[in-house]
Amino acid sequence: MSKILKVKARQVFDSRGNPTIEAEVYVKNKSAKAICPSGASTGTYEAYEKRDTNNKRYLGKSVFSAINLINSKISRALRNKNIHDQERIDEILINLDGTKQKTKLGANAILSVSMATKKLSAKVKRIPLYKSFYATKNFQLPYPLMNIINGGAHANNGLRIQEFMIRPDKAKSVSEAMRICYLVIKNLSKLIKAKGLATSVGDEGGFAPMINSNNQALDLIVLSIKKSGFRNGKDVSICLDVAANELFKKGKYSIHSKNMFLLIKQFQNIKK
Asked: pTM for the full model?
């Protein structure tokens, strides 16, 4: 049985350039790391991300307090525990925090340690990570939803909806799903350029054209699907991550439309 010797955390920087936690779990002669970045917008009821809001040297974004908890409290709690008993390790972490939204230790501390533990277990067993989960047959990679236009907290444009995505419904394999998305994205790039708009990207990698109409964004995607040789709503579907919590102002929702119902109705008409 491989036992945990210690857990060590450090501050690193994520793809947006923000500080985040990297946790490293150690057994004899081996270790594994995991990081836990967060999104640009978070819902009211999401698990709590512990940051040093008073540390102005990092604009209130550093994670040193969470790191200290990992290096002390969490490391002590997990020392000598079986690296392969993921359920028990997660139970210890959850109970150690003891709050519904993980406000004591921080979900970023708990998750980074949990993920590093799972990775190390697979490393010790010398198996791929996916084989360390309970399923033993019929493995299948999930098909992607591609985030292709960014708005809201993810981009500096006038779009209130945060993510406009496509789902390659026609695909029968991951490679085919990627090909379909590739074609739609490339045609979308051409359409945006043809309108004299920049094809710069937002936080999540989708295009962030300087437009302020949700309908215009949807129209661009519908046309790019058609130009790629696919049928909207059949071969490729449009999906939205509205991030509604970001739209709730002064007791009501505001999305640059008369109301939420109007946008939903317009979106449904586009799919027909």
From this structure: 0.79
What value does the mean pLDDT of the chain take? 88
Q: Nearest to residue 2, comparing CAs of 25, 34, 28?
A: 28
Please check whether residues 165 and 93 belong to one and the same domain: no
Contact predicate 116/24, CB 8 Å? yes
Q: Are residues 104 and 203 in the same domain?
A: no
Residue 146 exposure: Cα atoms within 13 Å on the Cβ side: 23
pLDDT digits (tens, 9 = 90+) for 132-155: 887 667 777 888 899 999 887 766
Residue 137 lies in a domain: no
DSSP string, 193-229: HHTT----B-TTSSB--S---HHHHHHHHHHHHHHTT
In the three-class reduction of DSSP (H, G, I as helix; E, B as strand; rest coil), residue 12 is classed as strand
CB-count exposure of residue 111 (10 Å: 0-12, 13-18, 19+): buried
Question: Does residue 189 register a pLDDT over 60?
Answer: yes
Dump pLDDT digits (tens) for 195-236.
998 888 877 788 888 887 888 899 999 999 999 999 999 999
Segments of the chain assigned E as strands: 6-13, 19-27, 30-35, 146-150, 163-167, 237-241, 248-249, 252-253
CATH number, domain of 178, equals 3.20.20.120
CB 164 within 8 A of CB 151: yes
Q: Which helix (H) or strand (E) holds 176?
A: helix 174-194
Domain range for 185 = 146-271
